[in-house]
Amino acid sequence: MPELPEVETVVRELKSYLPGRKIKNITVHWHKSFVNNCSVQLEDQSIQSLGRRGKYIIIYLEHSVLIVHLRMTGQLLFQQKNSSAIRTNHLRVAFNFYNGSALLFNDVRKFGRIYHMKQADEKLQNVGIDAVDPTLTASEFYRMLQSSKMNIKAFLLSQRFVAGMGNIYVDESLFRAGIHPASISAKITKASAKRLFDEMRRTLSFAIENMGSTISDYRDANGKVGNAQNFFVVYQQQGKPCVNCGKTITKIKHAGRGTHFCGQCQKLYA
Length: 270
What we know:
By secondary structure, the chain is an alpha+beta fold.
């Protein structure tokens, strides 16, 4: 599933294409992919700007918003006028603009959704602060941990406290911070919470710089793959030696997800 770095990459690229484009019409090829929860007409609205919260893409129109969740295999691709370079074998929704260009939503497994809403908060009111939001501080992050009895992996995956982290970057951040994924959030020391906060930010920033991670279906807005997967130190590295201590990286099922860690380097707070 695309996580914060992948979604941020798509948003940054679409910002150079979409603002000012006027929607001529929308073609829905799979009815569940587009959810219209707004009485405002979509056609003839111009795109004003783009934003993101966690894993959600927000497209601000003149009188309403589009909120996109890519889920497992969703791809939001921009197609230039008279271009056929982008493969559309799994096209679910197309936003066609007056100048002949289009915004295409491809989705192999059909889990992704595009919501048409009057206001973004109607959909995002329960989504926590973005993991790279500059207003989020290490002290506030520690306060959140202290208030939770969840294990740290489930805490980071929940999206209710800090939004944008998924299985890839949770595993990578916990390894770099030296914290076992089964640690109880409230038991993590203030110093370790600060280290996790810093490593989370560093891991996400590095992945954004490398255009995200392509494991299977992720593509940027131009249909290109990311590069961050070439630098994983623990995710999908099971059976390989730890880069720090040489002990074999372990994979278990934890918090309902495949979880990668080093039993030597990552301390359990319980």
